[in-house]
Amino acid sequence: MKSDKKAILFAKGISKYFGGVCALNNVDLELKKGEILGLVGDNGAGKSTLIKIISGVLSKDSGEIYFANRRVEINNPKDAKQLGIETVYQDLALVNYLDIPANIFLGREIKYNNLFGKIFRFINKKLMLKESQILIEKLGINLENLRKEIMYYSGGQRQSVALGKIFYWGRKVAILDEPTAALGVKESKVALELIKNLKKHGLSIIIISHNLQHIFSLVDRIMVLRRGEKVGVVNVHDINADDIVGMITGVKVLSKV
User: Fold this and answer.
1) How far apart are CA 101 and CA 127, in angstroms?
2) Is domain 36-58+74-97+155-249 in CATH 3.40.1280.10, yes or no?
């Protein structure tokens, strides 16, 4: 498999073992610029292992990763973030007792560009609030007082903050692990619209979800994993949910793409 020149991210021949258990066996993944790629499979298929390798949480045992047509080594989450890859897991990684600006800039706080900032590392909370307001307005997120601790917001609003955060810091690639799993119908709809909005703003997105209805409403292509191997990649307009279920369970076999 050769990488398309339009690919922003290309993982080739990725394998990962946990002791004697093979979690991934020679898996390729290609994410094109400006697309949403759905990554699906049953529990234990290798989805989370694959994205943790791409995001630097786990190390691969073999294979190569290319970003913007350049081979890269992603040894830790910092490497991924420096490339422009941001990941949101199901727990959202938000701190309940901090407000929205503090969560958006968590670990990457803006310091004053003067003696107090350079020596004493004083945080510029006013600028962080301004940047957060610009971000929220740009993405059309409906939030009230940004200074309120994030624990007081709904699940959907918290998800919106997490998605906004990856847009602010990612700029290139966003990886979303079950972004609607803990949300109700109304909040899921808001989250799905925001994900589409992120694509409109130029992000390339990988989304893991067991909800095939959400997958079909969002993605351009679907990649199916089964027992640590890639079953195939299909255009969302060329397949239906029953076909995907068949690929996940092994009932239906397609040629690998």
Assistant:
1) 9
2) no
